[in-house]
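# nightly structure sweep
# worker-07 picked up a monomer target from the shared queue
# config: single-sequence mode, recycle default, output format = structure tokens
# input follows
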Amino acid sequence: MPDSDQYASSPREARLIVVSGEEGAGKSTIIRALLPHTPRGARIDAEDVGQVNPCLMDDDLFGLIRRNVALLVENFWRAGYANVIAGSFLREYSDYLAFRRLLPPPSAVFLVELLVAKDVRDRRRVTRAKQTTQQWRDGVDLIPEDVTIRQAPDADYRYLGIDTTDLDVAETVRRIKAAIPEVYAA
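# output follows
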């Protein structure tokens, strides 16, 4: 791990905002909408970072994605971007722990989990720009919901769960900003 003195952005300032949630919860949409409000901010959508063919949604692929996202986060911090928003790469708390071991410690980590009712999520999945096949959606639906991220008693992050079922993008962004004044103070 490189010496933290090499950072253009002080490690005391470096913050990480992780946006997680099921497919169709709005992760990519929210991280795009949040960036213009994020001072000295950068965003990473792991769905873009992890595009491979063939896509074998296995532990090896998720490990590769975590390593790639960690390298990008660290590069943004070094370049002076104090606030990095990253989304779409955590399945459970153990994924988060594996990811955090790859990074020098930031001053703060905020985990925003987007929650959504299944009927709304299913509708979003077929109407969004990122199209997936029915076979893909059926496979994703077989993965049991994991609540270890929100229930982790020894977590080093502040957890924020937001039910986006009845929220538009602007209201979701407003709630995130209100919950993280360290980054989004007016």
